[in-house]
Design a protein that fits this description.
411 residues, alpha/beta, Rossmann fold, five-stranded parallel sheet, 13 helices
Length: 411
């Protein structure tokens, strides 16, 4: 755990229980150091805060939650080492999201662990790894995804692009691993179906977390004559891509999955207004109730280095609590069965955990950067504002699944 993360964890320990006192142990396995550390820490603090709020209200079935962070350095092999440490420490629930290569390794390891250790099962709550296979051919009873997958997000982006007659050429750029490849594939197929007149003038994959200066990539984008860029980049790769775009003075719009990554908006500055777009399950400037506004304010006050970005972390823990209460048990198998088909009334619309594949079905929102917002990001006055017609209802965002899930015996 980094010094900064340790300080953040201490900040949320006002009513947190100690490891010895915790009844429900949960592991957060994601980067807490290195170039993607800020992405992991922003999510970790969200889980810590929600666990604290649940504990302050009596916990779950009278038991307290403890979420412990394990730094995986965004490496699949290191993630498996940390997963085993977490299990040895008593964790029965695992949270992870930064990196589909990591998620794939955890899904496989959890499946094997549960097969070999009946009565000591572990459930994996995926809050951000969005490769579609995880809820299709690689689906697992022990895996639940609380973020929309890449095909769902790309459908929202391409539906919007379909109506933009001035977009004739698109450049694709992404990270060279399973998620980036899935984004590129979805973009090519969906654009080809919805706007066959659009030319894909570039399809570039770059090493994950290795590029320090994206200027050569930006120059390729400019030289291609692209009218728009689609990227699945996240974390430091998103921030550095925007930094290079700003330095080049390019005004090409970017349609992103993770334009809200820390530092991306501030890297572009006012050039991000009506130019940087993202698709998410919620944004702070959506109309919400006072309880949600209070949560946003609390997060921003306690963790000023970060933005309220990982709303789905709060949703995941709330749905766990609701499922456990419905099951009358905090044990993984009854909780997992209770989660199947469960609907949660959320601040930004109903979230339903589809039983067939454990893929959350929820509203999606397309937003762009504006200087007319209640909540800014990156500690500047620019923030995300919903586009006119930018709400995609859950029923419209839903995608079919090929999942054929094997389930354990129901208790």
């Amino acid at each position: 755990m980094s010094i900064k993360t340790a300080a953040l964890a201490a900040a949320v320990s006002v009513v947190a229980v100690s490891a010895a006192m915790a009844d429900v142990k949960m592991a957060f396995i994601d980067p807490l150091s290195g170039p993607f550390g800020p992405s992991g820490e922003a999510a970790y603090t969200s889980f810590l805060l929600e666990a604290e709020r649940i504990n302050a209200n009596g916990g779950v079935n009278g038991e307290m939650i403890e979420v412990t962070g394990y730094d995986n350095k965004i490496n699949p092999k290191e993630s498996l080492v940390q997963l085993q440490k977490a299990i040895d420490d008593g964790a029965r629930y695992v949270f992870q999201g930064n990196g589909s290569s990591v998620a794939s390794a955890i899904i496989d390891a959890v499946n094997k662990h549960n097969q070999r250790n009946p009565g000591d099962e572990v459930v994996f709550f995926n809050y951000a790894a969005v490769t579609p296979a995880f809820t299709n051919e690689a689906c697992s009873f022990w895996h639940f995804r609380f973020d929309a997958h890449a095909d769902m997000k790309m459908a929202a982006i391409t539906d919007y692009i379909q109506e933009q007659d001035d977009i004739k050429k698109i450049y694709l750029i992404g990270q060279d691993y399973v998620f980036g490849q899935a984004v590129a594939s979805a973009a090519e197929s969906q654009i080809g179906e919805k706007r066959p007149d659009i030319e894909i003038v570039g399809n570039e994959l770059h090493p994950l977390g290795k590029v320090k200066d994206f200027t050569p990539y930006i120059q390729k984008i400019i030289s291609s004559g692209a009218d728009a860029v689609i990227t699945g980049n996240w974390g430091a790769d998103m921030q550095l891509l925007m930094k290079a775009a700003a330095e080049a003075g390019s005004d090409i719009p970017y349609f992103t999955f993770y334009g809200g990554s820390l530092g991306a908006v501030s890297a572009l500055g006012e050039g991000a207004i009506d130019r940087l777009y993202q698709v998410t399950e919620g944004i702070t400037n959506l109309e919400a109730d006072e309880e949600q506004y209070a949560l946003i304010e609390e997060y921003k006050e306690r963790f000023p280095e970060y933005d309220y970005y990982y709303h789905r972390a709060h949703v995941a823990l709330r749905m766990f609590a609701e499922a456990a209460e419905a099951a009358g048990s905090n044990d993984p198998i009854p909780v997992a069965f209770a989660l199947e088909g469960m609907s949660h009334d959320d601040a930004y619309g109903t979230v339903t955990m589809r039983a067939e594949d454990h893929q959350a079905q929820q509203n999606l929102y397309i937003s762009t950067v504006s200087d007319d917002v209640k909540y800014g990001v990156d500690n500047i006055e620019l923030g995300w504002k919903l586009l006119d017609g930018g709400t995609i209802e859950a029923a419209a965002a839903e995608q079919p699944t090929t999942c054929e899930m094997e389930r354990p015996e129901k208790p």
